[in-house]
Amino acid sequence: MAIDKVTSAALETSTNQPGFRNIIINGDMSIAQRGTSQTGTTSSGYYTVDRMYFSVSSAGTWTQTQSTDVPTGQGFSSSWKIDCTTANGSLSAGSILSVMHRLEGQMLQYLKKGTANAESLTLSFWIKSNKTGTYIAEIKDTDNTRIISKSYTINVADTWEKKTITFEGDTTGAFTNDNGLSCLVSFWLAAGTDYTSGTLATSWENQVSANRAVGQVNLADSTSNELYLTGVQLEAGTSASDFEFLPVDVNLDRCYRYFQMMHSGSANKGMGLGWYSSNTNARFVPVMKKTMRSTPSFYQTTSSDGFRLFTAGGGNDNITSWSVQDSTNKNFALGYNTSEASGTGGQVGYVLTNNDSNYFGLEAEL
What we know:
By secondary structure, this protein is mainly beta. It has helices spanning about 10-15, 250-255, and strands at about 35-40, 45, 55, 60-65, 80-85, 95-105, 120-130, 135-140, 145-155, 160-165, 180-190, 205, 225-235, 260-265, 270-280, 280-285, 295-300, 305-310, 315-320, 325, 330-335, 350-355, 360-365.
């Protein structure tokens, strides 16, 4: 029996697109290195689910959670949930509430933005909220300050719904080919009149703030409001493919480029070898899990005596916080000095966590 030759083109056609077609990292919300819950959120930042940036200004107080509430039978195990704990029913002009995914320009060159062959993009996701009505999804080119926004509707309260939105390609303005921020994918959840008083930018245009989120409901207007999101996928083309599930080790490795939680949540856990560079100065070099996007900053608790350096010579110095001594995107060195040091220059020791609430990590987020 003759067997047809299988070509690479045929394989790509049979799977819609080759691997890593999803531009969004951790779109299934399965990785949450910083923790699974954060209460009292009133300022912007990364808090729970990796790569999901929570943007808020004068738009209530929120609890964020990595939830197990997911669409039935779709293969997801986690979602990102926000719950309003202090409402704001009268938004100020500059109020913002959104969740963003931030993207490097060098990751997006194949989209051919700024050329006649610019690729369209299709965004698909699962969403659930008790607050029905109009919501806005936006793509922003931060290199050229250009935007495009599309509306969608949450039709039924407290019910998972899948949404698919296509954004045409932009023939104006290329993404910069480097590791800096070039693109924001935003899910607006509330917006003041600074962002809603114009005409929605349904085609690519130079940014006019008033055109960004026209028609957006106010998710912050009641402490009864909550929202769940999972299965976020952004891909080249005009149609949505099935969600691209990745093995957990691959997904985690991609998150490590931007954030690495080195140690958290346990006392008396070894972190690695340290040493005294003098009687009153100590050093510690944590081992990076992966080369990071850029030189990272240090992410740590500052609880009293959160760490300690135990040496063979009997030293057992408590350390409240480390300071950065030297760092690149491949190597990281920490240090501390104290008038209470009991070590001797050149003496080697073991660095340990000292309480259950202590953590530290490395952050190279966009």
